Amino acid sequence: MKHRGNIIFDLDGTLIDSSDGVVAAVNYSLRMMNQPAQPPEIIKAFIGYPLSQMYTHFTDIPMEELYHHFQNKAKETIVASTTVLPGVSEILRRLYDEGYHLAIASTKIRPHIEGIMEKFEWTSLFSAYAGGNEVSRVKPDPEIFRLTLQRLSATPGESIVLGDTINDILAAKAVPITVVAVASPYGGKEKVQQAKPDYFIENISELPNLLTSTILMSGKEG
C-alpha cells in the first residue's frame, strides 16, 4: 500500500470525550485534600491542558499530592467513562485504509491511551503513540510530537498534527509541523483560531477531503 503520510492525533476533544472520568478524578483529588469540589463545566474547560495548569486555579495544595489522588481515581474512571466523538472511528478506519500512518500524542498517561485504544478496537490502526508520562514537558512543549515522530520513523515534512487546543497548535508550530485544528466539544473555538493553526475544521469528517485537496502529503511507498 502506498504510504500517504503521517497523522498525529491529540486524544481528548479530538478523538474522544473522557470528561466525566476526568471530572470525577479531579473532584476526588480535591476532596481527599479537603478542598471544595469544582463544577463540571469549569473542569472540562481545562481538559487537554496539563493538570498542573488546572489545579492552580482551584487550590494552593502541592501538585504532587493532588496528582497522586487523581491518578488513583483515574484508574477507575478515565477509560470506563470514555466515549468516541461522532464519526471518529469511521474516519480513522478510512484514513488507515487509504494508507496514512496514524499516531496519538496525548497528555494522558500511556496506560490510559492503551486502555482507550483497546476499548474501541483501535490498536491495529495506530502505528505509534506517546503519553504525557513519557516526556519531561507536556504540550505546549513540542517534546511529545518529536517523540511520536521518532516512533513513527517520520519527518515533520511528511506529517501533520490534528488537535483541538491552543497547546496542540503551539507545540506543533515549535517542531515545526503542519497543524490542523478541529472544533472542540469543550469550547474555546475563538481562542484556538486566534492561535492561527495552518487549517481549521469544524468536524473530523472534513479531514480526509482536506488532506487530499489542500495538504501535500508524502508520496513514498510504505
Written account of the structure:
The chain is an alpha/beta fold and 222 residues long. It has two domains: 5-17 and 83-213, 3-Layer(aba) Sandwich (Rossmann fold), CATH 3.40.50; 19-81, DNA polymerase, domain 1, CATH 1.10.150. Helices cover 43% and strands 15% of the residues. It is built from ten helices and eight strands. The chain has helices at 19-32, 40-44, 51-55, 63-81, 88-97, 110-119, 143-152, 166-174, 189-194, 207-213; strands at 5-9, 16-17, 83-84, 100-105, 126-130, 159-163, 178-182, 199-201. The strands form two sheets. Strands 5-4-1-6-7-8 form a six-stranded parallel beta sheet, sandwiched between helices. The longest helix is centred in the N-terminal third of the chain and has 19 residues, at 63-81. The N and C termini lie close together (6 Å).
Write the layout of secondary structure elements.
Elements: E1 5-9, E2 16-17, H1 19-32, H2 40-44, H3 51-55, H4 63-81, E3 83-84, H5 88-97, E4 100-105, H6 110-119, E5 126-130, H7 143-152, E6 159-163, H8 166-174, E7 178-182, H9 189-194, E8 199-201, H10 207-213
Parallel strand pairs: 1-4, 1-6, 4-5, 6-7, 7-8
Antiparallel strand pairs: 2-3
Helix pairs in contact: 1-4
Name a few traits of the molecule.
alpha/beta; Rossmann fold; six-stranded parallel β-sheet; two-stranded antiparallel sheet; 10 helices; 8 strands; globular
Short description:
Helix content is 43%, strand content 15%.
What is the CATH T-level topology of the largest domain? Rossmann fold
**What is the annotated CATH architecture of the largest domain?**
3-Layer(aba) Sandwich
Approximate strand percentage: 5-15%
Shape: globular
Name the poorly predicted regions: 218-222
Number of helices, counting only DSSP H or I runs of 4 residues or more? 10
Mean pLDDT: 93
The SSE string, one letter per element, is: EEHHHHEHEHEHEHEHEH
Counted beta strands = 8
Describe the largest sheet.
Answer: 6 strands, parallel
CATH class of the largest domain: Alpha Beta
What structural class results from the helix and strand content?
alpha/beta
CATH superfamily of the largest domain, by name, is HAD superfamily/HAD-like
Q: What gyration radius follows from the Cα positions, in whole Å? A: 17 Å
